[in-house]
Design brief:
This protein is α+β, with helices and mostly antiparallel strands. The chain folds into 2 domains: 2-89, Winged helix-like DNA-binding domain superfamily/Winged helix DNA-binding domain (Arc Repressor Mutant, subunit A, Orthogonal Bundle); 96-204, 2-Layer Sandwich (Gyrase A, domain 2), CATH 3.30.1360. Helices cover 48% and strands 17% of the residues. β5 (138-145) and β6 (148-150) form a beta hairpin.
Amino acid sequence: METIKKIIKSIEKTKGPAPSFSFLDVINILEIIWKTSVIGRQKLSIKTGLGEGSVRTIIKWLKKWGLIETTKLGCKLTKKGKYLIQGIKSKIGPSLSVSKSFLAIGDSNVGVLVKGVGDKVKNGIEQRDAAIKAGATAATTIIFRKKSLILPSITNSINKEWPKLAEEIYRTFQPKENDVIIICSAKNKFLAEKGAIAAAWSLIE
């Protein structure tokens, strides 16, 4: 994870205008390459919503750091790149759709599970702020502890107060002791997912 931050800092130190992409965009590109095995720059631009110039810059630096290589078919991860993205995925689960509820109030609602970081959550405000900064409209942080789903500063047992909601969360995310579930809402799925990942990163960086 530190490698990605070093890449962003390296880009920011180069001469010229500030980059029009973020730490999360670099992670997103790595994950897309990982999922597709090989992908071209134009398709990366479409999938990420970034301009081709930004994608070209990110590819240049990922290649310089030995995380990807380019072929006639497009970009693919190196062994080092695969190791890095697998390390990230071992901590943060996939983005999963969540039914609309008082915890999920947007047009699109997704959640991610972050493993073993419950002790790092204070009141969920840091995760909410990170999600909103990334484009989400709301975010809720839930801790799984002692077989209960805890909503910091609100309730120590979603299970008792909202059993149907708790059942859906268990079924969707299958949390283990001290795991955290972050549910994000936004006007579309792309922003909801981006917000959820940003909130998750606030707990593991």
